[in-house]
Each structure stands twice: as C-alpha cells, then as structure tokens.
Amino acid sequence: MPTRTHYRVIVLGSGPAGLTAAVYASRAELQPLVIEGGGGDDSTDVPGGQLMLTTEVDNYPGFPEGVMGPELMDRMRKQAERFGTEFATGELRSAAFNERPFRLTLASGEVTADTVIVATGARAKWLNLPEELEFRTKIGGVSACATCDGFFYKGKEVLVVGGGDTAMEEATFLTKFASKVTIVHRRAELRASKAMQTRAKANPRVAWLLDSVIEKVLGGPGKGVTGAMVRNLKTGEVREVPCGGIFMAIGHIPNTAVFAGQLETDEQGYLLMHDGTTATSVPGVFAAGDVADHRYRQAITAAGSGCMAAIDAERFLSH
Predict the structure, then answer these.
(1) How many CB atoms lie within 10 A of CB 222?
(2) Catalytic residue (choose from 45, 58, 114, 148)
(3) pLDDT tens-digit profile of 230-281?
(4) How far is CA 153 from CA 6, 55, 149, 179, 240, in A?
(5) Residues of the chain with pLDDT under 70
(6) Pairing between β-strand 157-161 and β-strand 245-248 as defined by DSSP bridges
(7) Which of 12, 44, 86, 161 fits a 20 to 30 Å CA distance from 250?
(8) Contact criterion met (CB below 8 Å) for 186 and 278
(9) How many CB atoms lie within 10 A of CB 169?
(10) Are strands 92-96 and 102-106 parallel, antiparallel or unpaired?
(11) What is the pLDDT, as a whole number, of residue 21?
C-alpha cells in the first residue's frame, strides 16, 4: 500500500527498465513510487519482471561469472531502495491520463502523479503445453530469446517454433552455436519476408518441419529437454524429434491493454515514443523497456531506456 496519495514520479513495472528509472529518479530526489507486478493472469506477471523466471544471466555487464536473474533484480531493487524509492505491489486496474495530475487505480486504492514512467514490459507467446512451464527459462529447456540463451546450446540440436521474420532471424542466429536448427511451422507457407526466408534456407544447418505442430515437450529433471512429439497436420503422423532445446518465436504481447485509447501504439500494441526521447503521445508520460521495444528486448537495453525515461521525467518536471 503506498504511503502517500500523490507522487511526482510513478514508475509502472519493476523489471530492469523500471528499477533503473527508479534509481535515477530517486537520486534526483523525486521520491518515486514503483508499482510492481502481481495480480495478472500471466505467469511472468511477477515483481521483478521476466528475469525473476530466468536462471543464469551471462550477458549483463559487470558480472563476469554470470548472475542469477532473481539475484540481479534483487540487487537493482535494493539499489533503488537505498536512494529512497518506495514500492507498492499490486495490479494496475486503470490509468487516467486525460486529467492532471494523472490518476492510477490499484487494487489497494488510487494514487496520483505528475509524471508516469510506463515500464510494464512485454510477454512472450507460448504454446501453452502442460509441461512447457516446467522447462521454461531453464538452460537446456524452452526459451523465447535466442540472443539471451543461444550460447548455452553449443553443439546441440534445437527446434525453433514460428514462421515469421523473428523465427528466421532466431534460427539463423542459433546456427552459430547449435549443430542443427529445425524450424517447426504449422503452415506450408512462411510469413517471413522473402529475404529472411532465402537467408534461412541457404543455411546448411537449418532444417524444416512444415505443416507441423509440437504436441508435447519431452525431458525431465536433471535432463532438461530431450525432444518433442511433433504432429504433421496434413498426414496426422506423430513422431518424436530429438532436440536439446526449444525456442519459441511466435511473437510477444506488450503489456499495454490497460492504456488502450490513451497512449499511442503501433499495430502490435507497443508504445510509440516521440522526438528521439522516451516521451509518449501524452506529455508527462514516458515509456521504457520492452513495452516500447519489439526489436532488442534485452535487460541491458531496457535498463538504458529506464535511465533515459527518468532523465526525461526530471526535465519535464523542472520545466
């Protein structure tokens, strides 16, 4: 429960973007409130964001031996607390950006703010198989980020699910590490651009399972993923395909539904920023992290944009 009813800065989200914004805002003596996740239907809707469900993070600068996702987020949170950031956990039920100050309705009540930094992130689309969650974000398991986890699949055979540009890009990237990358797509035709298709098809390490879907992920504790049961939609044939990991490349969903009709988004729902800053279509509301980034989706880029959003918010308030 927030200790006050009004804040100069409220940060929505407590992933790398939100916590970095909080560090910068609190160091500027703006006494921000961070509203953490929780209360949503998605399993990634937890305080700390998706890194709370990640095991080892090896690509965040400053940790030469790697760091566990929850530990990294705990350190960021403690750093923000050290400078006076306040935290409140709960579901954001509505936001009114058509009035000043902005009004946010939480499960525990209402708060107002002069500026808001939206860092609510985005969640990957999954197949929603019963055993999928067991292997999600584990090394040798099921991932939605080849850039993040590809290094751990050196010499292994992996599957990539999807038929768009993202799937082609992820598959091509994974061939740097994996011995074989098989693209599984439910249709005979790919949605990817011709250029991306040509690049993937020319790669000798890329194989194809078209008109096919994964029906079950195989593996177990201590073994990780060992394969998948794949069904051909045309013939009905089901067969086991050995692999050491599965990458989902079927898209992401930005967490912007609660802002519908108030903040300008692209066709996919990602927040649009203007004038080379983190400013959204509403003056005083700023965006940071994956909620506005459908290209990079990395912890380090999210943290950088959180810094930018806090600086933009401070300058907005000073004017």
Answers:
(1) 6
(2) 148
(3) 999 999 999 999 999 999 999 889 999 999 999 999 999 999 999 999 999 9
(4) 48, 15, 8, 9, 20
(5) 38-48, 50, 52-55, 137-138
(6) parallel
(7) 12
(8) no
(9) 19
(10) antiparallel
(11) 98
User: Is 42 tagged catalytic?
Assistant: no
**This prediction's pTM:** 0.80
Alpha carbons 153 and 167: distance in angstroms, whole number: 17
Identify the active-site residue in 45, 149, 293, 312.
Answer: 149
Active-site pick, 42, 114, 145, 312: 145
Contact 158, 178 (CB under 8 A): yes
> 148 catalytic, yes or no?
yes
Q: Is 145 a catalytic residue?
A: yes
